[in-house]
Amino acid sequence: MATEREKMYECEVRRRRVKAGGGYEPYWKVKSVVDALADDDTEFRCKDCHGPVKLLGRNGKNGTVPHVEHKLSADAEFCPSGMPFKKATDGREPRHSAQPVEFAPAHHQQAS
């Protein structure tokens, strides 16, 4: 029996916007995976649990739609978008990833 694959067609992508006082600040924006690829976005995370995801189907093979899957099975188990969470019958509660994808510090900013 084949295992049903998890396929999520929306994710969050890292973007930047102009700050009121000048410069840029990072933020996460929900986008479809297809749009994120068209916009050349490179940093992705799950829109619900904020965990790391892997990008699949970007090569455009016939019948393949670009999508993301959780990298960590524990995230899929407790994320509302995860297939194991959706199929669970034990009354589990959703939770954020134990290893969320956060913003990498800018190269020019040093903690003092």
Classify the secondary structure makeup into a structural class. alpha+beta
Oligomer kind: single chain
Main β sheet profile: 3 strands, antiparallel
Question: Judging from the principal axes of the Cα atoms, what is the shape?
Answer: flat
Key attributes of the depicted protein:
112 residues; alpha+beta; two-stranded antiparallel sheet; 3 helices; 5 strands; flat; disordered C terminus
Structural features, described:
- The chain has 112 residues and is α+β, with helices and mostly antiparallel strands.
- It has a domain at 10-87.
- It is 15% helix and 25% strand.
- It has helices at residues 33-38, 73-78, 83-87; strands spanning 10-18, 24-32, 44-45, 53-56, 67-70.
- β1 (10-18) and β2 form a beta hairpin.
Please outline the helices and strands.
Blueprint: E1 10-18, E2 24-32, H1 33-38, E3 44-45, E4 53-56, E5 67-70, H2 73-78, H3 83-87
Gist of the model:
15% of the residues lie in helices and 25% in strands. By secondary structure, it is of the alpha+beta class.
